[in-house]
Design brief:
With about 350 residues, the chain is α/β, with parallel strands linked by helices. Helix content is about 35%, strand content about 10%. A seven-stranded mixed beta sheet has the order 3-2-1-4-5-7-6. It is globular, with a radius of gyration of 20 Å.
Length: about 350
């Protein structure tokens, strides 16, 4: 069994003035997150794969906001207020979370059916509402699959550890919760390999679900997928979904394209009150670059939407927040002899 992983204390939210939301963190002397409240600060941290941001007990956080759309047990009052704001801007928000969970369930189930028994969920959020964790730990296959859940929020990680300690030994032994920078691919994979959490000589299913649109604008999102493709064993899976403000197909009615773009911009702007990083919609060409080097699965589907995968998209009435998705396999690498012949 893998060695015990580091754990973090549970943090409490102090009673702070709500009017200070739009200001720099008033906890700056203790949590240091103020460096992430400028675009240049976020880009520097992500470009250099800096150490994890320190915990901030002032701003709402993405995983807790999304928890509001599930059962709300891990959401604080401020998270719930932001969630309500997002829903007012884009009433489809709660449905989009359910669609994403269903997409994750289908991907994990399909990977299991193809014999993959190692899963890496990046930006995982809370374990007890995780669609990926539910499918993996309930799977009745041999060998028993395992899942590594990576989130850079200290409170989320601490709550995950507490939840796992209360589960049965089988679930505990198949689940690993890590607080790590999901964009620091090299460091993350080195850690998992060194501590024998995952066997990188065998296929791994990597879930990049609604994550890469949090990479700061100006940084290359394809560099993240490229690092995984280079390091993972052939037959590994990468599942990707990202926010966009451009539909794949022509909308059914005039004005829908403009409405999607405007609503998405307002929805992203509302996240300015949350702990960075912040979402930025991505263009289709950028997603295509993320997929370079993968064999898309199933063949012929290409880029689609979380609602439709594994089928091609047929969305004619796109609603924000609108995501596009794709799943691919790491292809077999040519042997030195094959390369010489070529």
């Amino acid at each position: 069994m893998s060695p015990a992983l580091p754990r973090s204390p549970v943090l409490a939210l102090p009673d702070l003035d709500l009017a200070a939301w739009l200001q720099h963190c008033i906890c700056r002397t203790t949590c240091g997150c103020f460096a992430l409240h400028t675009s240049s600060g976020r880009a520097t941290a992500q470009r250099t794969w800096a150490s994890l941001r320190q915990a901030c007990a002032h701003h709402p956080q993405a995983a807790r906001i999304e928890n509001t759309y599930r059962d709300g047990k891990r959401a604080w009052e401020r998270d719930k207020l932001i969630a309500a704001t997002l829903s007012r801007i884009a009433p489809h928000t709660r449905t989009a979370v359910r669609i994403r969970d269903a997409f994750t369930t289908r991907v994990v189930s399909e990977a299991l059916a193809h014999g993959v028994d190692q899963f890496l969920d990046l930006g995982s959020g809370h374990v007890y509402t995780s669609a990926a964790h539910t499918v993996v730990t309930r799977a009745k296959v041999d060998p028993a699959p395992r899942i590594v859940m990576v989130d850079n929020d200290e409170v989320v990680h601490a709550n995950n550890i507490i939840h796992l300690e209360r589960t049965n030994s089988d679930v505990w032994s198949r689940t690993f919760s890590l607080r790590r920078n999901a964009f620091a691919v090299g460091r993350l994979l080195n850690y998992l390999d060194h501590h024998e959490v995952l066997d990188l000589q065998r296929p791994v299913c990597v879930l990049l679900i609604d994550l890469l649109h949090y990479l700061e604008p100006g940084l290359d999102t394809s560099s993240v997928t490229r690092r995984f493709i280079r390091r993972l064993a052939p037959g590994s899976w990468l599942a990707i979904s990202v926010l966009t403000d451009t539909p794949l197909l022509a909308p059914a009615r005039a004005g829908m394209r403009t409405a999607l773009r405007e609503t998405t911009a307002q929805w992203c702007q509302a996240h300015a009150q949350t702990l960075p990083p912040l979402p930025t919609p991505r263009r289709h060409a950028e997603v295509e670059r993320m997929l370079t080097g993968l064999d898309l699965y199933p063949a012929g589907t290409g880029i689609t939407t979380p609602r439709r995968w594994p089928l091609p998209d047929n969305t004619r009435t796109p609603r924000a927040p609108f995501s596009i998705a794709a799943v691919g396999h790491v292809p077999a690498r040519p042997t030195p002899i094959a390369q010489a012949i070529a």
